[in-house]
């Protein structure tokens, strides 16, 4: 799925070609085009999360880990707007699986929760549920990503994401 491409403009034939399969082969596994597109977008998000996990495998500083995950998520959104929009900006046609369910099932979300739990255990974060903190942080990251995608030509501060992370971290610091 190419940057700048709208989900409706993506053909199943194009997707089949991208993964070196035939259209009938794809429909053996997916019942509809939206289901196929969501699966492809989820795979792209999980691939990004796995790459970040590998990069962070030796990193012990929790702040560095959280910031790297945040930057990777926003970078993914800006560099791959179609998968991002499919996962987080398109109402699901099948309400049995929400974007929040997809997000929480992703590799990256669980790693974020684990990092926040480690921060809480180390006394580097207030005593708050790491999953709830992760949801709030992910919502803030989604806001930044959505604005950068929808309004790429605005004169955003070059450190917009870092400012958001600093403010979020300050609010979570133990007092």
Notes on the structure:
By secondary structure, the chain is mainly alpha-helical. It has a single domain (32-172), classed as Orthogonal Bundle (Tetracycline Repressor, domain 2). Helices cover 67% and strands 0% of the residues. The chain has helices at residues 12-18, 23-27, 33-55, 62-79, 81-88, 99-105, 107-121, 130-150, 160-172. Helix 4 crosses helix 5.
List keywords for this structure.
globular; 175 residues
Number of strands: 0
What is the arithmetic mean of pLDDT? Answer: 82
Q: Briefly, what CATH class?
A: Mainly Alpha
Number of helices: 9
Terminal-residue CA separation: 46 Å
| Class by SSE composition | mainly alpha
Unreliable runs: none
Might you state the CATH topology name?
A: Tetracycline Repressor, domain 2
Strand content: under 5%
The largest sheet is: none
Overall, the morphology is globular
Order of helices and strands: HHHHHHHHH
Rg over alpha carbons:
18 Å
Determine the CATH superfamily.
Tetracycline Repressor, domain 2
- Portion of residues in helices? 55-70%
Work out the count of structural domains.
1
The CATH architecture: Orthogonal Bundle
Topology at a glance:
Layout: H1 12-18, H2 23-27, H3 33-55, H4 62-79, H5 81-88, H6 99-105, H7 107-121, H8 130-150, H9 160-172
